[in-house]
Amino acid sequence: MRSQPKKPIFLAAIFAVCALASAQDYALQHVRIVNPGKPVIEDGMIAISGGKIVYVGESKEPDTNFGVVDCKGLTAYPGFIDAYTRAGLNLPAAPTPADPPSAFDGPLASMWHENRRGIYADLDASAYIDAKTLNSRHSQGVTCAQLASGRGAFGGLTVIVNTFESDPAPILMRSAFQELGFAGGGGGGYPGSPMARIALMRQMLFDSEYQIAHPGQDGEKDMNLSAIGDITTGLVRTLFRADTEREIQRAFNLADEFGLKLTIFGTDSAWEHAAELKRREVPVIVQAAFPREPRLDQSEDPVRRLNDPPLEYLKEQHDIWMDQCLAVVKLQKGGAQFAFSSDGDTDIFLANVRRHIQLGLPKDAALAALTSDAAMILGVADKVGTIENGKVASLVLFDGDFAAETSKIKMVFVAGKKFDLGGN
Predict the structure, then answer these.
(1) Is the pLDDT of residue 376 over 90?
(2) Which domains does the chain have, with CATH numbers?
């Protein structure tokens, strides 16, 4: 009996995955494929079915169920990941604390046990996604983003989303991190100083451990303490907003004391801890945005010049600003793993990343920070970050090199959905 001829491997894979092929199935033909850390495919094809990638390789004839997209002259990269942003959430107003007891009946109101200014640990960002704003991120090549509240000492649970409008919201991962920071809750009274804020955070962490060790002894569970308890038991990772050298060291200290799984969100001084971050295997989410450049010259008006700071001071401030601009380059040279955040300049995210490259950040490192490293840091590397079979079909297609200012984004795919951007 004669054996039947074998179907090409590609077609066999297509038939296996695409028995129920839909109008959303695409074959991107003659596309240049750039994957971080892998050889470039100059004339390739990416097949998409059911929102996932089912083939990546040399250009071939696709199955007839696929809508062919001619990508000649275009380069495909994994969709960019915004590793931290406060844009895209419609958060409720911060709750008003209950009325404190009279000072005649107990301690001062500012010392009251229920005064938890800046504690929002039970806030779940996944419940407040503003899906209508997500499509706007395509102009920057962003197909995935972590949304965070940015509030107080305990800011609540972050959420990772695909950037397209849908109902229900396009959630990729809930409860990605519990967000912490050394900021207070505003207003007067306790905790008004850095040491008071640290004391409050430590007390909340201790109280959460007590609640875990003594369930049900004090009546109804405190939801804030339950959420904080998830980081002390390792169920949820910790994202620490810590920008200065001292804040980062304090984050290390709290992580050591309570056994927290630590990720740092900060830029200015993280490079000073690069060796320790690498040793601890603590990744960093850095702001792509740059601080505003300070003046370097004095006023030409002789009268106004009398009120200007000395020229030496202006030069010193400009040197400090330049050091801040080079913070990401220094962090990369120190060997720490990092991802980019758009927070501060969402609409010029890509331009800011390109500027870091111009200042000396290797292009491959910048691409990894936007894709594979970002996915690894956020815990979604099994879903996004590279162009591979089985992963979510999130791609950004340029008419040139992503790092070149002249290159434009022509289209993006987000979880298999195609968005044409024309001349963006």
Answers:
(1) yes
(2) 79-384 (3.20.20.140)
